[in-house]
Amino acid sequence: MDLDQPNVEKYFKELPVNNNLISSGDLMEIVDNDSQGYYILDIRQEEDFNAGHIEGSHHIWWHELGEFLEEIPEDERIVVVCYTGQSSGQIVGILKIMGYDAFSLLDGIDRGWEAEGYPLVQ
User: Fold this and answer.
1) Has 82 been annotated as catalytic?
2) pLDDT digits (tens, 9 = 90+) for 86-109
3) Is CB count within 10 Å lower at the N or C end of the chain?
4) Torsion angle, CA of 22/23/29/34, rounded to 10 degrees?
5) Structural domain spans, the chain
6) Which of 43, 79, 82, 105 is catalytic?
7) Using CB atoms within 10 A of its CB, is residue 83 exposed (0-12), middle (13-18) or buried (19+)?
8) Checking DSSP bridges between strand 21-22 and strand 101-105, what pairing results, if any?
9) What is the end-to-end Cα distance of the chain in Å, rounded?
């Protein structure tokens, strides 16, 4: 996907309507239903991903995302996961501008997913 002006304009036009966030509960429902049509992208450091991640997640450290963009499917909804939601929100902005259908996990793994008692797998 290429960065182009129509996607940039669309992203900012829709921003007040679409906050690009997904709750832990909604993501757990997706995971429970085998995440068909969703690609969960964990951008935390590799050792943290290996210590525990959301079932079905794919790992690309955010510093290396540009090198692995071709691994991210263009035909699925992308849920980006980080520690607190800050970095994933920034990555979602970039992915949306590139034309991906992307969302950030609200409050991330630490303050959202784990704090709400959802499981991590190794």
Assistant:
1) yes
2) 999 999 999 998 999 999 999 999
3) C
4) 40
5) 5-113
6) 82
7) middle
8) parallel
9) 31
Tokens, residue 66: 């540009």
**Helix runs in 1-122, H state only:** 5-14, 24-32, 46-51, 86-97
Beta carbons within 8 Å of 2's beta carbon, 6+ residues apart: 98, 99
Residue holding tokens 């909604």?
26
CATH superfamily, domain at 5-113: Rhodanese-like domain (3.40.250.10)
Q: What is the pLDDT of residues 26-85, one digit of tens each?
A: 999 999 987 789 999 999 999 999 999 999 999 999 989 889 989 999 999 999 999 999
**Tokens (6 digits) for 36:** 């068909």
